[in-house]
Amino acid sequence: MARLVGNSEELSGVLAAARSGDLPAFEVLMRQHERLVLVTALRLRKPRAF
Q1: Cα 6 vs. chain centroid, distance in angstroms?
Q2: N or C: which end of the chain has fewer CB within 10 A?
């Protein structure tokens, strides 16, 4: 299982690989995007206690 991208330097490498047709690199980007969408949805759903 591929891990998520941690820094901008690593992100640049994954983006370049995905653009050149590297399917595992594309899957890493998709997994990261899906995770960001899920976290956003959870934040919208769960009220914060102040």
Answers
A1: 9
A2: C
Q: Which domain holds residue 21?
A: 8-45
Per-residue pLDDT band for 3 (boundaries 50, 70, 90) equals low
Residues 17, 14: Cα–Cα separation, whole Å: 5
The total number of structural domains in the chain stands at 1
In a domain, 50, yes or no: no
State the virtual CA torsion across 23, 28, 29, 33 in degrees, nearest 10. Answer: 140
Distance separating alpha carbons of residues 31 and 18, to the nearest angstrom: 13
3 lies in some domain: no
Does pTM surpass 0.90? Answer: no
